[in-house]
Design goal:
Blueprint: H1 2-27, H2 32-55, H3 62-77, H4 82-97
């Protein structure tokens, strides 16, 4: 019984900080420049998560990851589906390591 209460308590502590902003931010009105800045955050976070992985695909050969990243950027520029962009980058890295 104690374990169940601990699990429920931990789930509530985790869930509350994630759910509250969804309801609070919806009611707030920001200035246009703040909205532009906030809309850029997901791209910046995604770049910060992806770039180190690109550089360390093969530790001895960072160019393989860089070429795969460039292929992904080019495919994304053409407006392809995200799945196709990822498959294209993976195929490029795979072909370069053969």
């Amino acid at each position: 019984m104690t374990i169940l209460l601990i699990i429920i308590g931990m789930s509530l502590v985790t869930m509350i900080p994630r759910v509250i902003p969804a309801f609070v931010v919806e009611k707030l009105q920001f200035r246009p420049w703040i909205n532009r800045w906030l809309s850029a955050i997901p791209y910046a976070a995604l770049g910060a998560l992806i770039f180190p992985g690109i550089m360390t695909v093969i530790p001895d050969q960072p160019m393989v990851g860089i070429v795969g990243g460039i292929v992904a950027i080019v495919l994304a520029t053409f407006g392809l589906n995200v799945v196709l962009v990822v498959i294209g980058a993976i195929a490029t890295v795979f072909l370069m390591t053969m």
